[in-house]
Write a structure and sequence with these properties.
It is a single chain. By secondary structure, the chain is mostly helical. It is about 70% helix and about 5% strand. It contains 5 helices and 3 strands; from the N terminus they run αβααβαβα. Strands 1-2-3 form a 3-stranded parallel beta sheet. Helix 4 links the parallel strand 2 and strand 3.
Length: about 220
């Protein structure tokens, strides 16, 4: 009936309790399932594995639907986990019980699909919002980079203009220095010639006025 209603399910059809890594396989299948059906029977309530499976489903926050196949009471450890859950009473009216079970599963799956769709829509909205924020951030950073590049280019141009002006000033200073050095050289040469001329003139004057080294004074 479940398969005809389009409901897929898994149970220990192959007896994996006798195989290897059965615990991991059971937990994996519970984790992959959307709904956990507890088929309550006398044997199931006596099995310690039933308590562990229901505890795993509860811990994994699975939707648990108890289905009472017979009137046997719940195991106390099982009762602790599912005491507040509505159950399907299959054993009193199997046909109605199966219909109630299928209806309960379909209602939950529809709600689950709607919830997942809302969650996906919200995730998409948040992603779009994040994309918008990220895009605006990139645009702001890009504009900031362009502005900084423009400022740096202006500063470079100003620096180059200052450099050109300074180079012109430096050329002028060097030219003036060269002129001053030439003028200084000329002045030194003039000074040398003047000194040489004065020395020669004094020597000629001494030749015209010899006194043999004797100092005399004429007395009237």
């Amino acid at each position: 009936p479940l398969s005809k209603a389009g409901i897929t399910y898994w149970f220990d059809e192959e007896g994996i309790y006798y195989g290897q890594n059965f615990v991991e396989k059971i937990v994996t299948n519970i984790e992959d399932a959307k709904i956990f059906l507890f088929l309550s029977t006398a044997n199931a309530n006596k099995s310690p594995w039933t308590c562990k499976e229901i505890a795993s489903a509860d811990e994994l926050e699975k939707h648990i639907i108890p289905v009472r196949i017979d009137a046997s009471p719940y195991n106390r450890k099982v009762l602790f986990r599912i005491a507040d859950l509505n159950y399907i009473e299959y054993y009193t009216n199997p046909e109605k019980g199966m219909n109630d079970l299928i209806n309960s599963i379909q209602v939950y799956l529809e709600e689950w699909v709607a919830k997942e769709r809302r969650k996906q829509d919200e995730d998409n909205r948040l992603k779009e919002q994040d994309d918008t924020i990220l895009r605006k951030h990139r645009e702001d950073k890009l504009r900031e980079c362009h502005e900084n590049i423009k400022k740096l280019e202006q500063q470079r141009e100003e620096f180059l203009n200052k450099r050109i002006n300074l180079e012109k000033v430096l050329v002028e200073i060097n030219s003036n220095l060269n002129l001053l050095e030439q003028e200084l050289t000329t002045l030194k040469e003039d000074e040398r010639i003047l000194l040489e001329t004065n020395r020669t003139s004094n020597e000629k004057e001494d030749e015209n006025n010899p006194h043999d080294g004797i100092f005399y004074k004429e007395i009237n």
